C-alpha cells in the first residue's frame, strides 16, 4: 500500500507541466489518442528496431474476424559497423531491408502505412515525430541524437526511390502491447511488460496531460515506471542486495524499480543472497564455489525452473551441481525458498504499481467500480510458474474496486505497431470528415 501511494504521487508529478522535468517517473505522452474500436481494417507494415536485429512485418487487420494477422515477416541483422557508423548508413540499411521484403511480398506498388517500434529513449512530439534522446544497447550512430527518426527513415526511403510508404506512427513497445490486445478486447486500456525490463502505459484523460495542448478525450501515457525510485523514494525498501545490483550495473542510480522486478536482475539478486547465506554458514556447509561467486552466473530462468511444480527440486539439484556447490536436500529447499521470496517480491511490487494505475483510471472517470483489461507481455510474466497468479492476487487485494482481466499480448512491437497505425488512420479520417 505504501509503495502504491508513493507511485501515485510520482504519476501526478510526472504529468505536471512544471514538475515533469525533475520527476523520476517520466509519464511520456505517446500521442496515441484512442484504443481500437473494432472497425480498423487493411494492410500495414511494421518495423521493429530494438536491438542487434530488426524485423519487418506485413500485417493484415481483418474486421470480420476481429483479428490482426501477421502475413509475413523478415529478420535483418544489423552488423556492428553499422551500429557504430553514421545515422545515414543505419537508415539506408533499414530502407534496403524493407525494399527486399516488399519485393518478396509483391507489395512494391502499394503505399502502405507503417508502424515503427523504436525501442530507444525518445521524446515524442507527435504520432509521427519522435526525437532520439540518446542511443543505448550498444548503438552509437552519429548524427541521430536530437533528430526526428521518422524523418531520417523517410529520407532514406526517398534516397532509394524504388518504393514509398504511407503515414508513419511511432510506437513504444509497451503501447504496442496494449494495442495488440485492444482489438480482441476493447476494454484493454493498460499495457504492461515484465521481461528483461519493466514498463507500463495506460489511457489518461487529456485534461491531466498538461504538456500537450487540448482538454478533450484521452491519450496513452508511457509511464516509464522502471525509473520509479530514482530520486531515492524507495531507499527504505531497497535491501543490501538491491544496492549491490544497482552499483555493479551499467547504469547505477537509474531504473531503481526495474532492478527490483525485472528479469535482467532477479537472478543476480538470488545469487547475492545465496552467497551471503553461504558466508553466514547457513548454506552449502559454508563453502561457496567459483561459479557462485561469478556475477551473472545464476540466470533468472533458473528461478522459474527451481519453482516449477513437481520438477523444481530435481531442477534445483542439477543447477546447484552445475554451479559447483556441495548441496544436501535441505540446501535445495532453502534455495527454492530464496527464489520464491525474490520472485514473489517482484510480483507484489509490480502489483502495487499496477494497482496505482487501475485506481487512477477509476478515479479519473468517477466510477465506483472499474472493469478493465491489461495487455501483458514479457518473459517473467509468461514463463514463471506462479508470477502471474501472485501478481493478480495482490492487485485484487490492493484495489477491490477494480476488476482487472489480463490478456497475454501477441507481438506488441509487430502487430501492436500496426494497430497503433490503424487507429491513428481511423482518427485522422474521422477528423477530416468532421472538418469537411
UniProtKB/TrEMBL annotation:
InterPro entries: ATPase_NBD, Hexokinase, Hexokinase_BS, Hexokinase_C, Hexokinase_N. It comes from Seriola lalandi dorsalis. GO terms for molecular function: ATP binding; D-glucose binding; fructokinase activity; glucokinase activity. It catalyses: D-glucose + ATP = D-glucose 6-phosphate + ADP + H(+); a D-hexose + ATP = a D-hexose 6-phosphate + ADP + H(+). PROSITE patterns: HEXOKINASE_1 (PS00378), HEXOKINASE_2 (PS51748). GO terms for biological process: glucose metabolic process; glycolytic process; intracellular glucose homeostasis. This is Phosphotransferase. It is an enzyme of class 2 (transferase). Belongs to the hexokinase family.
Amino acid at each position: 500500500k505504501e509503495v502504491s501511494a508513493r507511485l501515485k504521487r510520482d504519476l501526478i508529478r510526472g504529468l505536471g507541466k512544471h514538475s515533469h522535468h525533475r520527476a523520476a517517473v517520466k509519464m511520456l505522452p505517446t500521442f496515441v489518442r484512442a484504443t481500437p474500436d473494432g472497425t480498423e481494417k487493411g494492410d500495414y507494415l511494421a518495423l521493429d528496431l530494438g536491438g542487434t536485429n530488426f524485423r519487418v512485418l506485413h500485417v493484415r487487420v481483418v474486421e470480420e474476424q476481429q483479428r490482426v494477422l501477421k502475413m509475413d515477416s523478415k529478420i535483418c541483422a544489423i552488423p556492428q559497423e553499422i551500429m557504430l557508423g553514421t545515422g545515414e548508413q543505419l537508415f539506408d540499411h533499414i530502407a534496403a531491408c524493407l525494399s527486399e521484403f516488399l519485393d518478396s511480398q509483391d507489395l512494391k506498388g502499394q503505399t502502405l502505412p507503417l508502424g515503427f517500434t523504436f525501442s530507444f529513449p525518445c521524446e515524442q512530439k507527435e504520432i509521427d515525430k519522435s526525437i532520439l534522446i540518446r542511443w543505448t544497447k550498444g548503438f552509437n550512430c552519429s548524427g541521430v541524437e536530437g533528430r526526428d527518426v521518422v524523418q531520417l527513415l523517410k529520407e532514406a526511403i526517398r534516397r532509394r526511390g524504388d518504393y514509398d510508404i504511407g503515414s508513419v506512427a511511432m510506437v513504444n513497445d509497451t503501447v504496442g502491447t496494449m494495442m495488440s490486445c485492444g482489438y480482441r478486447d476493447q476494454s484493454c486500456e493498460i499495457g504492461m511488460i515484465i521481461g528483461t525490463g519493466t514498463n507500463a502505459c495506460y489511457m489518461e484523460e487529456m485534461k491531466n496531460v498538461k504538456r500537450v495542448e487540448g482538454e478533450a478525450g484521452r491519450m496513452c501515457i508511457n509511464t516509464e515506471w522502471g525509473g520509479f525510485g530514482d530520486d531515492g523514494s524507495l531507499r527504505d525498501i531497497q535491501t543490501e542486495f538491491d544496492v549491490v545490483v544497482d552499483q555493479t550495473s551499467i547504469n547505477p542510480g537509474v531504473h531503481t524499480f526495474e532492478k527490483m522486478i525485472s528479469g535482467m536482475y532477479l537472478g543476480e539478486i538470488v545469487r547475492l543472497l545465496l552467497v551471503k547465506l553461504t558466508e553466514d554458514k547457513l548454506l552449502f556447509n559454508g563453502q561457496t564455489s567459483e561459479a557462485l561467486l561469478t556475477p551473472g552466473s545464476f540466470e533468472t530462468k533458473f528461478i522459474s525452473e527451481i519453482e516449477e511444480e513437481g520438477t523444481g527440486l530435481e531442477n534445483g539439484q542439477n543447477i546447484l551441481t552445475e554451479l559447483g556447490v556441495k548441496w544436501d536436500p535441505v540446501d535445495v529447499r532453502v534455495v527454492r525458498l530464496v527464489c520464491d521470496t525474490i520472485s514473489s517480491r517482484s510480483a507484489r511490487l509490480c502489483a502495487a504499481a499496477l494497482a496505482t494505475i487501475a485506481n487512477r483510471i477509476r478515479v479519473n472517470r468517477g466510477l465506483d467500480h472499474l472493469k478493465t483489461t491489461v495487455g501483458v507481455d514479457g518473459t517473467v510474466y509468461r514463463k514463471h510458474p506462479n508470477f502471474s497468479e501472485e501478481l493478480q492476487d495482490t492487485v485484487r487485494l490492493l484495489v477491490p474496486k477494480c476488476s482487472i482481466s489480463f490478456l497475454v499480448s501477441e507481438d506488441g512491437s509487430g502487430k501492436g505497431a500496426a494497430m497503433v497505425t490503424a487507429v491513428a488512420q481511423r482518427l485522422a479520417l474521422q477528423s477530416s470528415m468532421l472538418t469537411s
